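Researcher: I'd like a candidate sequence for this fold, 520 residues long. If you have to choose between options at a position, lean toward the conservative one.
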């Protein structure tokens, strides 16, 4: 079966490249992962690998020509036989059978799913092989390091093959699944979308290294195809440490297996040795297991480390008496429940915070990287930390200063429900100016929350407890009390500022009538 090999994306913003050298010629038989040509972009020399075994039938460009990204680079016969022989055996082949019935097999290419995102984890397939798809039907949930994204089908058709299993890492601009499209044109050849080998920086584009010279271990970013990189991940191997036996130090699967079997021994020597025993993610030795940190959890880890290492945190704790606020909420919740509005204490906390920010705008500011400028924001975009199924998410409600308590309650319900399912949009995660973390929902009382950089403050709400306190008459009575814990950026906020801000915030919560009057 003849297919056009499509030149894939080879770098951000790159739309064309020069053919520096063909490593194959027409009539050559090529193997999966074999380098086929070197191309030069305006940034680096890149080696393009084959995706399938087969025979090269036509090169569309000569050496020195300019090739276009997403255009055919060469034609190949993936059956590995001459066109005449292929015609004889056509009835037994899947693709010709599809063409005969007016159908075409096509790979669905994973599109751009966010700025700077090059890969994602398959969280869940919403379809299976053999299912009939409708245009725009959701096919899978994928997790980036920012959010959970749902991928829709582009065309109606039947799912033939899923290229990834649940939990695997899929590459943007690479085939995600294959489908059979009914009624498609039969004249156009099938298309092969090719993954790209990592760029190899070169001072001189035309220089060619000796094929027998392997790149030294630890030489930075390794030159290898996605299939090799996937194998390295499965074996928990740093690919940059693997000596490559290919041209210009290219790393092949045998090199990775050889390294796993004994380190830096050459790939050629190890290929003849005994088969490598594949490493597993989970090991029974000592009853431990190793699990990769990825997606939202990896992003959170980086964000928290960056925050703690660059912001001097200080903590301020206070006790708030919520007895009157709880009574007010009790009077109102049934009334609003009939309107479909879930009235919790959180909308009161958020509105009271917005009112206090008006008098202390520094709490709603952000400092630049070298702490030479402070930006004050007119909008109070208050974030709420949500413990979702994919990790900690912090969506925010925009413009709380212009919203009523009921409006905040409506938006909060919608936002937290979406966050718990991991389906918050990137826009809802961006632009926060101050954050509330409700640790009390799980059972904590006091904490030292980490600031959601580049904000300057975060507060953790403890659980509400009925505790004895003396009233104005000196009598002991039960009061509903909550411990709150602030963390502030000590480069911007001092102890006196956060104490005065908290006292004002506290007064609105302890005397709800004063908060309602301040909203007028």
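Model: Candidate sequence:
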């Amino acid at each position: 079966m003849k297919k056009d090999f499509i030149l894939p994306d080879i770098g951000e913003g790159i739309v064309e490249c020069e053919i520096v050298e063909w490593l194959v010629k027409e009539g050559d038989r090529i193997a999966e992962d074999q380098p086929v040509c070197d191309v030069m972009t305006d940034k680096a020399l890149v080696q393009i690998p084959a995706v399938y075994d087969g025979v090269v039938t036509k090169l569309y460009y000569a050496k020195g020509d300019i090739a276009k990204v997403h255009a055919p680079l060469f034609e190949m016969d993936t059956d590995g036989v001459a066109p005449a022989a292929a015609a004889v055996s056509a009835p037994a082949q899947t693709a010709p059978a599809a063409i005969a019935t007016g159908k075409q097999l096509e790979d669905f290419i994973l599109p751009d799913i966010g700025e700077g995102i090059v890969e994602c984890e398959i969280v869940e397939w919403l379809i299976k092989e053999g299912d009939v798809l409708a245009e725009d039907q959701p096919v899978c949930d994928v997790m980036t390091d920012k959010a959970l994204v749902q991928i829709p089908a582009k065309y109606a058709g039947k799912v033939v093959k899923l290229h990834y299993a649940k939990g695997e890492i899929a590459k943007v601009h690479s085939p995600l699944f294959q489908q059979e499209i009914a009624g498609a044109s039969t004249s156009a050849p099938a298309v092969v979308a090719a993954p790209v080998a990592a760029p190899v920086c070169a001072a001189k584009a035309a220089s060619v290294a000796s094929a027998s010279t392997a790149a030294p271990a630890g030489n930075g970013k390794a030159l290898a195809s996605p299939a090799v990189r996937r194998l390295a991940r499965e074996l928990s191997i740093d690919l940059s440490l693997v000596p490559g036996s290919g041209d210009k130090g290219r790393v092949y699967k045998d090199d990775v297996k050889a390294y796993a079997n004994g380190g830096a021994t050459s790939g050629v020597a190890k290929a003849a040795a005994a088969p490598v025993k594949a490493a597993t993610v989970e090991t029974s030795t000592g009853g431990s297991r190793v699990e990769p940190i990825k997606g939202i959890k990896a992003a959170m880890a980086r964000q928290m480390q960056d925050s703690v290492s660059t912001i001097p945190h200080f903590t301020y704790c206070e006790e708030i008496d919520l007895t009157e606020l709880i009574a007010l909420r009790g009077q109102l919740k049934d009334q609003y429940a009939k309107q479909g509005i879930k009235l919790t204490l959180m909308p009161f906390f958020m509105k009271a915070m917005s009112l206090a920010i008006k008098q202390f705008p520094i709490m709603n500011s952000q400092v630049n990287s070298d702490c030479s400028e402070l930006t004050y924001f007119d909008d109070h975009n208050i974030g709420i930390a949500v413990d979702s199924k994919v990790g900690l998410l912090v969506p925010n409600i925009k413009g709380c200063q212009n919203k009523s308590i009921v409006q905040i309650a409506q938006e909060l319900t919608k936002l937290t429900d979406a966050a718990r399912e991991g389906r918050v949009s990137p826009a809802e995660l961006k632009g926060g100016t101050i954050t509330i973390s409700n640790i009390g929902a799980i059972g904590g009382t006091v904490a030292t929350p980490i600031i959601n950089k580049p904000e300057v403050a975060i507060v953790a709400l403890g659980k509400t407890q009925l505790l004895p306190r003396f009233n104005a008459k000196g009598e002991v009575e039960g009061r509903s009390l909550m411990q709150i814990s602030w963390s502030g950026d000590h480069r911007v906020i001092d102890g006196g500022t956060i104490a005065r801000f908290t006292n004002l915030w506290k007064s609105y919560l302890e005397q709800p009538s004063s908060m309602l009057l301040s909203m007028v």
